[in-house]
């Protein structure tokens, strides 16, 4: 069902790789709710995924951009404003990658060059997207910038590795830039801490299935699916959330407030 929640809104959606991506679901729902937008991902990701199909479905221009490059980001905003006929109202940062995780490096044996790359790709790119937008005056007043996070930014999860530090930095940037951008342009900046989700990136983390099943058993509502996360993103892009900023918002079926659940107790066979 469509409510025209984003009718007349323009935006940029990053990070869609395939139909399992949260960003992919956001793009589909944003189109249904009346938004026009551009899609972007790293050039190598554009060759690997099926984002061209999504672009056709959403009638969106596809603009390659390396999120660690301020030149690429500037080009992304310039071309997006040309394609959309003006400044944007929302930006989704759905970007995260750790070479250490991909190559199964233990937390006590990290490659520090890769660690810096994890931070650059997964968190500093969030700052770069906002700093570049501010310099170009590319986001309308009362616009919304949103990043996707995970509770490992606050709690320790074995094997999540240096991505935990990246997510912590992402959330800190949202608070710091949320203050700056709010004072300057009334632009709001938030992060969503999403349940474990069976995306291509998430499923590549060692022990992901155990993470997923544990969180599902711990949460009052179970794990929040990608489709519902997309709906939450749309709410945060809309005028209904115009006074929400500098927040890390949990979208996890209640997991973040749980100590233990009956299902976990039963799994251990003790009362």
Essential attributes:
single chain, 271 residues, alpha/beta, Rossmann fold, 7-stranded parallel β-sheet, 10 helices, 15% strand
Structural commentary:
With 271 residues, the chain is of the alpha/beta class. The protein has one domain: 3-Layer(aba) Sandwich (Rossmann fold), CATH 3.40.50.720. 45% of the residues lie in helices and 15% in strands. The protein is built from ten helices and seven strands. Strands 3-2-1-4-5-6-7 form a seven-stranded parallel sheet, sandwiched between helices. α1 packs parallel to α3 (51-58). The radius of gyration is 18 Å and the shape is globular.
Average pLDDT for all residues: 95
- Extended strand count: 7
* Category by helix and strand content: alpha/beta
Oligomer: single chain
How is the topology of this model organized?
Blueprint: E1 10-14, H1 22-32, E2 36-41, H2 43-48, H3 51-58, E3 62-64, H4 70-84, E4 88-93, H5 99-102, H6 112-136, E5 139-149, H7 163-185, E6 188-194, H8 208-218, H9 226-237, E7 248-251, H10 262-268
Parallel strand pairs: 1-2, 1-4, 2-3, 4-5, 5-6, 6-7
Helix pairs in contact: 1-3, 1-9, 4-6, 6-7
Structure, briefly:
This protein has 271 residues and is α/β, with parallel strands linked by helices.
